[in-house]
Amino acid sequence: MGEKIFIDKTGGCICGDIKFKVKLDEIPLVFNCHCIDCRKKIGGMMTIILLRDKAIEIDKSKLKIYEHAGGSGNKIKKHFCGNCAAPILTYVEKYKKYYLYAGLLDDISFLKKAENIHFKDSHFPFMEISDNNTKV
Ligand SMILES: [Zn+2]
Ligand SMILES: [Zn+2]
Asked: Does pTM surpass 0.85?
């Protein structure tokens, strides 16, 4: 087995109050979530990257948190910029994992593949969901 390769990336929100450094897998796990919660939170499908523990360096004092119950009753904590309201991180208590909103990265050119999740009955009809880009 070869050694895992990690890549260092930077990102931030539109107003610049939030800046972060993140360590990602060379080919990170990226999901397009089409669930109704995400749609209502950000106005559309959300693209998130599963983070390894302690992968992100961020000043949490400038983040605001909105907590709600996910589909299965588990707590979801949406972290967003207190100034411009850009979504930054989502914490899913069930998995004890943070997910980064992919669009916050300064460079997105390496994100070549994403899997669609929670799209049944809730994705925009104009978006093409096919067997080769879905997880479930
Ligand atoms: Zn979702
Ligand atoms: Zn901001």
From this structure: yes
